[in-house]
Amino acid sequence: FASATPNWGIEVEGGWVWPGRIDVRIPGDAGTRFSFRNDLDVDNSAYARGRLFWKPADRHTVIATVVPLEISARGEFAHDTRFADSVFAAGTPVRASYRFNNYRLTYRYHLIQSERGDLEVGATAFIRDARVKVSSADQTDSDDDLGFVPLLHIRAAASITPSWRGVIEGDALAAPQGRAVDLFIGTELHCGNSLVAGFGYRVLEGGADNDTVYTFALFHHASAYLRWQW
Questions:
Q1: Can you give the C-alpha Rg of the chain in angstroms?
Q2: DSSP code for 162
Q3: What pTM was computed for the model?
Q4: How far is CA 132 from CA 24, 85, 129, 180, in A?
Q5: Residue of 131, 130, 41, 43 lying closest to 83 (CA atoms)
Q6: For residues 37 and 220, what is the distance between their CA atoms, to the nearest angstrom?
């Protein structure tokens, strides 16, 4: 928040998203590994996400975040590809989709608060609603994954001018079974006490590697957002 006065805020973010990597092998121990980018023609697309802020007390902020995300691709596999319970023959036209909707509840504490900059730290409860789907004219198969992941949260801001700030904000955590990173780097323009506009680059990366599923994805975002706070 720009100051301690606003207690609520709504933020809408949008822009363009393009995958740097989507690698899949399902089942993780017996499927055929394939890449959305290297084996198929992947579609870039627009995206949107929303956040609701609540500041119950000075230095304390709670954030609810909704992130819908789905990427599509089409093409033909060069080799017979086992995915889930199906085998897609080489040369058969297929369509594939990778959904990674996620919902988050974040608590962060305002550790450093000054005219020169701010530092906030906290934790995020991350619920993922993921699905990989592959279809041909004759068959369709998919794998769904609904799960919970705890993440660490950080936000740092530095004043550039009285109205402009540089911002780094993200959620991240890594473990032997997988990892998740969502990081924004950009600038904010504070238009008074009620309206904030942000511009920058966002990276979303993560995945899992086990006997059931192997999926790793990297998404680049050209981002812009507006936040109204009161």
A1: 20
A2: S
A3: 0.93
A4: 8, 13, 11, 17
A5: 131
A6: 13
Tokens of 172: 């991240």
Structure tokens at 41: 């023609």
What per-residue confidence (pLDDT) applies to 3? 46
Separation between Cα atoms, residue 151 and residue 133, nearest integer Å: 27
DSSP 63-129: EEEEE--EEEEEEE-SS-EEETTEEEPTT-EEEEEEEEEEEEEEEEEEEEE-SSEEEEEEEEEEEEE
40 alpha-carbon distance from chain centroid: 22
Q: Residues 59-70: pLDDT tens digits?
A: 999 999 999 999
Supply φ then ψ for residue 78, to 5 degrees. Answer: -75, -20
Q: CB under 8 Å to 186, separation ≥6 — which residues?
A: 166, 167, 198, 199, 200, 201, 223
What's the pLDDT tens digit per position in 189-228?
999 889 999 999 999 999 989 999 999 999 999 999 999 9
On whether the CB atoms of residues 194 and 228 are closer than 8 A, the answer is yes
Instruction: List pLDDT tens digits, range 128-169.
Output: 999 999 999 999 999 998 889 999 999 999 999 999 999 999
